[in-house]
Amino acid sequence: MKKTIFLYGLALAVLILIMRVIEYRFLVRDLTLEFYIGIVAVFFTALGIWVGLRFTRKKVVVIHPEFQFNEKEQSQRGISKRELEVLELMAQGLANQEIADKLFVSLNTVKTHSSNLFSKLGVSRRTQAIQKAKELNLIP
Amino acid sequence: MKKTIFLYGLALAVLILIMRVIEYRFLVRDLTLEFYIGIVAVFFTALGIWVGLRFTRKKVVVIHPEFQFNEKEQSQRGISKRELEVLELMAQGLANQEIADKLFVSLNTVKTHSSNLFSKLGVSRRTQAIQKAKELNLIP
DNA sequence: CGCCAATTCACCCGAAAGAATGAGTGGGAT
DNA sequence: ATCCCACTCATTCTTTCGGGTGAATTGGCG
Questions:
Q1: What global pTM score does this model have?
Q2: Interchain contact, A51 vs B56, CB within 8 Å
């Protein structure tokens, strides 16, 4: 990212330098101002197009839109990190006891988390929670 | 498409017009040439970015490979139609009782179906069954 | 017709899940 | 220092699941 910004800055600097040179030449040769301006306009239009392409090309390449977590829903519903962990394991088909073992907590804790999770998701069963969570992009 | 080209042409015409006006004003007020050129450069850079974005902002079509039922798995595992119905409703987060109501059968029947389903899928919990069924393309 | 598979249902029992409640602890913010 | 919140855990109780078993029925097929 920093490299990208640096490259853009460098490109701009080079362009400004070129502009100066062009300016000097044209002033010396005493060409019309309109022509000079036209050159500059074309130049910077090209630069703009280039920049525009750079910024958007990547989006086209991404064919398979991968899962992207919906932070808004998480914060709006007040779902904590731990609850999310439980949710993910739940979606993997693990039983509460297995989740407890995996998270190194007690079964009761997992039950508490899942219970809170259900109320936050507005559901009453784990299968529904999984469905809902996928709809809300909380899990892949 | 023609509308787009027309719009671009129009935009360019307007920009040239604005350029002329700016040019006039700056010449009259006798400001520095560098400043004037800077304005033009920024202007056309913006134009270029805009054009670049317009031309490349292809809608990222979500290639969501549509579900296509895996008949082979169904027959190989000997899963009946009724069992599949139960599976689908199960994947929708319905409880056995709700499935029973929806299919107009008794709770015990649903239990039998789901039980047979689990053994055919090689799982022991409904959440796992849903996972597995999705992997096997038995449900979307 | 007799066989088979699918479907339906029942009963029992243990395990798991879920609801409700209370409570202790530790880290962060005020 | 105090308060809040996430996290933790426990207990009790009810509901739901899931396994196991047995059995009646129905429709298709040889």
A1: 0.63
A2: no
